[in-house]
Amino acid sequence: MASWLPDTLFEIVGQGPAPSKDYYQLLVTRSQIIFRWWKISLRSEYRTAKPGEVKESHVDFLENSHLQVQVALIFGAKIIEYVLNLCQGKFDFLERLSDSLLLCIISYLDLEDIARLSQTSRKFAKLCMCDTLWEQIVQSACDTITPDMRALAEDIGWKEMFFTNRLQLQLQLHRRKQKLTSHRGAEPALGTRPPAHRPAGAVEARQAQLLSASLP
């Protein structure tokens, strides 16, 4: 499983707590913790200060309480907790799977589980709301997907379509057909010519000629 992991497991940058203006970077690789800092100051004694860097193995970082406190002060308690878990080999493999594979897995969950999963992280919230997932769910729930149903889903979204009851769905499909039919009926047929414009009185004069010709 560890072979699935990229070389860089986690990276974060941030500014030190006020009044400090210094910038920091924390990088967690598969084998090291890299902590970098840049001194930001207008004072003359710091103008030539070079960026600093500390590299430690995961084991050494777990034993370095001083560095852990620094990381916690700059990035917060949740970040240091997450980094400590990474150093202990507690990797979040699920988060690192491809979106296509995750969507396939999520599509087999119950609706309640999908709702709970969407609250765990921004990534899963996005995946649990995407049309690709709900298209798979609708296809598994329906025997067939007609072209009209697919067109309607493109208009309102697959999730909205899934939660629409059958009667409302039939009504929306019927309205969509009527709208398309009326729109097509309003358009002139291809190859037809509009009626020729005749000057006022021309029609009446022609009718009079025909009438006089028919009289004995």
Automatic annotation (TrEMBL):
Residues 91-137 form the F-box domain. SMART domains: FBOX. InterPro entries: F-box-like_dom_sf, F-box_dom. Gene3D superfamilies: 1.20.1280.50. Residues 181-203 are annotated as: Disordered. It holds the Pfam family F-box-like. This is F-box only protein 36. It comes from Chrysochloris asiatica. The gene is FBXO36.
